[in-house]
């Protein structure tokens, strides 16, 4: 019953909910690895190529789509984002848990292509708090913040497609709950075993 293969966890939620911070906490644990996404957007202050994202041109991104090099990809606020496939599959085969910090569009694509992926949705305590966080970043004007809030509502409507949700009002509590979810998933009986058990029950009736 030992499980050598790692599990794929998708962390999604509206911009400003703190999903990146939750991921950073999970990556402190041995056996968890982060999948660095590729994007066409410009780096924000302090972001490092190859660590936070692979920052590429639109032409290079499209070339990767055509080559089938993404596990998922999506357009968000006029920028393209995608998850390089090879790194993720390689790490899973080697027994690492891989954590994806991606938007809801991408999360649903991953679930379709990789049904065993575990999807976790990060929620803000309230929309008022989400607005406060977005304004506090000081990186976008009022118009862009309103656009993000509208997008947040559209994303929250899809929460039913996810396996779990976490309200991030306190980062320590949110990270602890995420760790509990990962631990529970690690203890699940594999689907490959369940049909055997059902056949055994038939034989004993």
Descriptors for this entry?
205 residues, alpha/beta, Rossmann fold, 5-stranded parallel beta sheet, 8 helices, 9 strands, 20% strand, globular
- Order of secondary-structure elements: EHEEEHEEHEHEHHEHH
Label the structural class: alpha/beta
Whole-number tally of structural domains: 1
Helical region count?
A: 8
Let me know the number of strands.
Answer: 9
| Oligomer category | single chain
What level of helicity do the residues show?
A: 40-55%
CATH arch. level architecture: 3-Layer(aba) Sandwich
Can you identify the CATH superfamily?
Answer: P-loop containing nucleotide triphosphate hydrolases
Distance between the termini: 25 Å
**Overall morphology:** globular
What's the CATH topology name? Rossmann fold
Largest sheet: 5 strands, parallel
Q: What's the alpha carbon Rg, rounded to whole Å?
A: 18 Å
Average pLDDT works out at 89
How large is the share of residues in beta strands? 15-25%
Any low-confidence stretches, pLDDT <50, length ≥5? none
Biggest sheet strand line-up: 2-7-1-8-9
What is the CATH class?
Alpha Beta
Description:
The protein is of the alpha/beta class and 205 residues long. The protein has a single domain, classed as P-loop containing nucleotide triphosphate hydrolases (Rossmann fold), CATH 3.40.50.300. Helix content is 43%, strand content 20%. The protein has 8 helices and 9 strands. Strands 2-7-1-8-9 form a 5-stranded parallel beta sheet, with helices on both faces. The chain has a 4-stranded mixed beta sheet with strand order 4-3-6-5. β5 and β6 form a beta hairpin. α1 crosses α7. The radius of gyration is 18 Å and the shape is globular. The model has no long low-confidence stretch (mean pLDDT 89).
